[in-house]
Specification:
With 101 residues, this protein is α+β, with helices and mostly antiparallel strands. It has helices spanning 37-48, 71-100, and strands at residues 2-8, 15-21. It folds into 2 domains: 2-54, no CATH class; 68-101.
């Protein structure tokens, strides 16, 4: 839970700002990438420094989505995609040609 407050500093056209957060644990390194905590922290800092133009929801960082295959899985995948699927297409084409002839 958090609360953002502005207050009058006594100077003309000058307001103070502060943010009170229940715990600092959400900004720890382990939780910074969880559920937009990074955006929240950066937006809080931008608001505190009166840079409202910089407040936004930033795009997500790309994740590493590699496929790890064993040799057997790689061989099966390669065999199916290079040989079995084209063979099915060729056999189907020959069957259609044979029926129409």
């Amino acid at each position: 839970m958090a609360a953002a407050v502005t207050y009058n500093t006594g100077k003309p056209n000058n307001q103070g700002r502060f943010i009170v957060v229940g715990s600092s644990r959400w900004a720890a390194n382990a939780f910074l990438r969880f559920n937009g905590n990074r955006n929240l922290m950066l937006n809080m800092m931008n608001w505190l420094s009166s840079d409202e133009d910089l407040i936004s929801i930033r795009p997500k960082e790309q994740e590493d989505r590699r496929i790890n295959l064993t040799r057997a899985q790689f061989f099966t995948l390669r065999s199916v995609s290079q040989f079995l699927l084209p063979l099915i297409v060729v056999v189907s084409g020959v069957m259609v040609w044979w029926r129409r002839r």
